[in-house]
Amino acid sequence: MKILMVAPEVVPFVKVGGLADAVGSLSKALASRGHDIRVVLPKYKSISDFKDIHFIDKYLLKIQLGKEVAVASIWESSFPGSTAKVYFIEYNMFFGDGSVYCGPSGSEKDNGYRFALFSRAALDLCGQINWLPDIIHCHDWTTGLIPAYLNTNDFSKPLGRAASIMTIHNLQHQGYCDKEVLDYAGIIQTLFRQDGFESFGQVNLLKGGLYHTTKINTVSPSYAKEIRGEALGCGLNLVTEFRSSDLFGIINGIDVEEWNPENDTYIASNFSEKDLSGKQNCKNEILSICDLDNNKDAPLFIIISRLYEQKGLDLFLNIIDGLMNESNMQIAILGTGEAEIEEEFVHFSKRYPKRFSTQLKFDNVLAHKMIAGGDFILMPSRFEPCGLSQMYAMRYGTVPVVRRTGGLIDSVSVFSNDWSKGCGFNFENVDSNELFAIILEACAYYSKQNFKYKKMQINGMQEDFSWLNSAKKYESLYASAIDARRNAFL
Ligand code: ADP
């Protein structure tokens, strides 16, 4: 199949969260299965500084917006270690400065215009390179206009035959913007209606995309069910319910080459499920980096996360004093996010020196070291569309302690009447007391029932989280979307 991936962030070029990992790894997995994959993303300033990109070509692209034609430069490159091609849309007024989700003006207000231009550019690029995709795979709200373009402006053109897939990586982010964005984009205003882009008098890019796309999927089967309900539907549950016959859940895989304890070059010692001895060196290294006591009996809990309400870390913050009193656990946190949560973690690092460490930064190398050196990884998320860190952790024999939600249900197998039969521990409700109890239970397993803890480590290391299974499921979804789109023209 000829598949165009359109995404705001893609590993290894630019990453804010799990979306970037998913798009990068899926593209590589599909390319290795013989598909013709082209990935399009904006050329942010950080990409110009990325030394490993080898640009093959550069040319101009005319982007047909509502009243104006914008001219962007296209930088063509290859995807490292893969046949997938990459195109960067360079339009400095929108992407030259700032970050992925914040324009050069330093505000998120321009995002509607930025990603309208990007969406139109991704489609106009196909004409420019004379390549017609069978599938246009859109990722989250930034690409919400694409399915609408295919159903209107492009419908009677060859490109309009392409089917679209909209993957929801996180329903919370929907791309609210001014109504004028539709005029700027050249989208007919009649699409500004309740079963389209309208939401509370504004444009909601994701909502419109969900109405217009051929098929929808999200990144785990459990999250696909959860977003049809009011609690986790983020105000779009009527839309997801309305489209439920076209809504699927496919769990993300992970890049098993980057995350492999047997040959990971970032960690102190390599190890495998057959010989875990190197893991102790990795723990020693992380204890030293984080300035924690080298206490052999103490379980080391790690958190690697964006520090936002979604991640449920306030549940943990509520119980830290209690945990410090009633257990010998040690904690190492790596993350950035909301100032208030950051401050609370720093506060506890000062209160419990040598037992509690907070690193407020984004650091992929440190993330590898922590995943390798931790005994447990903690993810008490309020909701978790898929979650990647728990899968990385299991590959490195680091046992997850998670809330029963979304992808954490689908990826961490749990046997609550004998935890050692599974790969991790979980708790049900958004409740600090439940989290407290399960952390103490995990600590007890680590000390008293060490052989059972080891069994859980091995169980996790034996799981297969590669993209192969998920890529096959995407192939079936693409095939059904192509059929559905074809039928729309009969
Ligand atoms: P989300 O997309 O909601 O942030 P995921 O678990 O799907 O959550 O993906 C987050 C990814 O970002 C994981 O690969 C995680 O290890 C990584 N990550 C998050 N925060 C940091 C950080 N401060 N430093 C390094 N990696 C991080």
Can you put this structure into words, describing what you see?
With 490 residues, the chain is α/β, with parallel strands linked by helices. The protein folds into two domains: 2-253 and 468-487, Rossmann fold (3-Layer(aba) Sandwich), CATH 3.40.50; 278-465, Glycogen Phosphorylase B (Rossmann fold, 3-Layer(aba) Sandwich), CATH 3.40.50. Helices cover 38% and strands 19% of the residues. It has 19 helices and 18 strands. It has a nine-stranded mixed beta sheet, sandwiched between helices. Strands 15-14-13-16-17-18 form a six-stranded parallel beta sheet, sandwiched between helices. The longest helix has 22 residues, at 467-488. Bound molecules: adenosine-5'-diphosphate (ADP). The site of adenosine-5'-diphosphate has 17 residues, from α1, β13, β14 and α14.
CATH architecture of the largest domain: 3-Layer(aba) Sandwich
What CATH calls the topology of the largest domain is Rossmann fold
Oligomer: single chain
| Number of helical stretches of at least 4 residues | 19
| Average pLDDT for all residues | 96
CATH homologous superfamily placement of the largest domain: Glycogen Phosphorylase B
Major sheet strand order: 3-4-5-2-1-6-7-11-12
**DSSP, total strands:** 18
Sheet bearing the most strands, described? Answer: 9 strands, mixed
Number of domains: 2
Which distinct ligands sit in these coordinates? Answer: adenosine-5'-diphosphate
Low-confidence runs (pLDDT<50, min 5 residues)?
none
Shape: globular
Which structural category do the helix and sheet elements fall into?
A: alpha/beta
Distance between the termini: 21 Å
Strand content: 15-25%
